[in-house]
Batch of 2 targets.
Target 1
Amino acid sequence: MVMGLASRLRRLVAAILVPALMIPAPAFAQASGKGGLPIVRDAEIEALVKDYAAPILKTAGLSRGVDIVLVNDEGFNAFVSGRRIFINIGTILQAQTPNQVIGIIAHEVGHLKGGHQERLREQIDRAKTIAVVASLLGAGIAVAGAASSSGGMAQAGTGMMAGGGSLAQRSLLSYQRSEESTADRAALEYLRATRQSPRGLLETFEILERNNLFGGPLNRYLSSHPLPRERVANLEAAAKESPYWDEADSLALLQRHDLARAKIAAYTGGATAVRRTFSFDPRGRAAQYGDAIATHLAGSPAAALSKIDALIASDPKSPWFQEMRGEILQQAGRGDEAAAAYARAASLDRSGSGLLKAAEGQALVTSGSPARMGEAIAKIREGLRADPDNASAYRFLSMAYGKTNDIGSAELAMAEGYWHAGNFRQAKIFALRAQGKLKPGSPGYNQAADILAYDPNPKG
Ligand SMILES: [Zn+2]
């Protein structure tokens, strides 16, 4: 049983890792069609990039309403659209310092502030949220199907994971050359105002050029952000005038950066990638963390658990070690213990991630104990209030209702999930089914009616 789950997870992880725009992996192809943007959700990495971006956004006067979205792509890329900054996980993995990612973010905020790409905004807002192919870096995905008592619901859940967007990534990815210079100048200004070094931004150019020589997957960034020699020369001259050129990242931020890289390495390339990434410090904490995750993904829960427990002993206050402990336990079918680990993670997490809050409830669903379904529903709802775009949470919510034989609410949870994923057609199908089972006039019934009445394309 455990082996079955592990191999399913491996298959799923493999599917997620196929660059979605090159070969649509089955999970993506199923419902998203061509060009869906594979989004990845992870509380630890999201909290990190949020902290990277916060001072830059503040100084640019964009503190509110800008989301940072992680794209499940190993290539080096970042771009903006509407009020969103998209960063590939490959960018974080390849960046050796926080300052390099911060430099990229400053440049992207420059695009955002300059209103570049505004013309695409309407089209994207219509998709409601691009978290259409939301996948968690963690487990829960494979567990979801197995834990569901209803085969139909589990299948529907798989469909929800695949989502329903049809956004051509390519159309998002072309800035004008003049916009590049504007974004560079803005980036230097933001870095100076926040007393950070512009060195990382220049270093990313070097990474790009070096990788480009070997024809890696990085051409996408170069084709979207033209990088003529003149641009580099201009930027370099201006950057070196910064009084903060020698400013270094804080040790705490560097450590968080390496832990995030270790996680990405483990999920994208397993133990080999972890060893390659941390060959300079093979016994360091980041290498150990990556090793624990890789062990978990290889289907060895007992070994993974002892590795993560060693890390917890070295840093009991880390929410992310606790979260990984929860994930390992959940994958091993120990739902109650997993829920306790997630609860600890959520209490330690200062970013207030809705993903962690929902994870506790999701673990309770897999515990299979009907007595705890009320608690599970309350926890997942709490998580969804903080983060309504958590596709995985709606499926678990639906399962929790299913286990209490409240089928109308279970269908409604699926409808909500599809709605938040921008898949309005599926949302309406489930809303209609929910209405048939819910009491007319009840809050759930009315919510289903709202989904049925929603017009995603007003005025044609
Ligand atoms: Zn650019």
Note: Residues 251-277 form the longest helix (27 residues).
Target 2
Amino acid sequence: MRVAIVGGGMTGMSAADELAQRGIAVTLFEKDASLGGLAGSFEVNGIHLEKFYHHLFTSDTGMVALIRRLGLEEKLQWLPTSNSYYVNRIYRLSTPLDLLRFSHISILDRVRVGLLYLRTMFVNDWHPLEEISARDWLVRMAGEGVYRGVWEPLLRTKFGRYADQVAAVWIWNKLKLRGSSRGKKQEERLGYLHGGFAQVVEAWERRLRDQNVKIRLSTPVERVTIEDAVATGVVVNGEHLPYDRVLVTTAPELLTHMAPDLPDDYRRQLTDIDYLANVCLVMELDRSLSNTYWLNIGDPTIPFTGVIEHTNMQRPEDYGGAHLTYISRYLDADDPAYTMSAEDLLDSYVPYLQRMFRGFQRDWVQRVWAWRERYTQPVIGLHYSQRKPPFRAPVQHLWHSCMAHIYPEDRGMNYAVLYGQRVVDEMLSAERER
Ligand SMILES: Cc1cc2nc3c(=O)[nH]c(=O)nc-3n(C[C@H](O)[C@H](O)[C@H](O)COP(=O)(O)OP(=O)(O)OC[C@H]3O[C@@H](n4cnc5c(N)ncnc54)[C@H](O)[C@@H]3O)c2cc1C
């Protein structure tokens, strides 16, 4: 059996590894010049840095196992990180004690936020949460004051016009994840691979090549060919290449572009899933902006979603003394900010940065990069388990696994690895049933 995998992000790499381990011939097609997809990197002062900030949670066991398998475990660090919330000023929100001091909301509401985290830990059955929006669930669990004072601004800055559609399952999962990735003193602990996750991608690529996976970089798949309701291969550079199975790991909408002949119901299911784009501004500064790693923005007048100071988690010395900060912004792809140059984006952010960080001057910024991707976060709405696309397409020999399949968890490298393995398991068990 020969399998074509479309997309060399973490899902495609994981599926390729799984197939190759079972002796199946795999070709991995990636449109970009390197593997890694959203977990890709660039170089700052000779060191790899992710284009979009990346870290691990303690529950990311699939990624930890992969890091071990690739012999990189000595570089994996679990670090205490600080979390803050910006609304009029920066409030540190890393520990239960910080929460008690969070004077932006009433003392009663602070207790309610604490109870919300606690109660979330005991919710194990997520099915009822499919039927209620994040908004209604948060109001029910913690009251209108907590929703308006804390969560509504966060949902709006991340999901924009989709904020009211987000299901409670999504926020429950986020609260549980962040609440459980903690050390003994209840401080958040996040994982990072010293020297960057690019090392995972590089070592994994070597491992795939050693297993005879054919990797075709800078090779966009133009079309998945379907004849008589059977996927028969792919078209690259105008040439049809026959394969016995095709596994697509791109966003659902891209699959509909590559395969215009999909059945109508399935096509509708794929195009019904909304995705946010993201533009991430990476600033190299000559000083630190604050002492926090992760700064959530709770002020709806600020256009970005979060400020993540990477060098408050890793040391600036590791990057030649540079202070590295991401400014993340989820948005619609037709938002003019999505296509702005890095310099223009920074110019437009300066007034907000001056409001947030005392004394901020544009000339603190030595260099700036803007990374953008169209499909970065599926919007998880109500009853998603019924709307989620299947691994096995209703076209024989066509398979699909991407961020939109991950549920009830939210997308992340860990689940890309696990779902890449799962789709192969399902593909091969379908094979055995034949
Ligand atoms: C801002 C941001 C922050 C994040 N932070 C974290 C984090 O802290 N921790 C974490 O674990 N995860 C994080 N993630 C999520 C993580 O990056 C993704 O879940 C994971 O990398 C997705 O992998 P994937 O292979 O499913 O998708 P992708 O990475 O999107 O891979 C799809 C691949 O398909 C390729 N492709 C598209 N069209 C074609 C075509 N026609 N032919 C060939 N190839 C094609 C693309 O170039 C891409 O390489 C973050 C993501 C974003 C956007």
Note: The pocket of flavin-adenine dinucleotide is lined by residues 6-12, 29-32, 37-39, 52-55, 220-221, 249-250, 254, 258, 278, 280, 328, 376, 402-403, 411-414, 416 (CB under 6 Å).
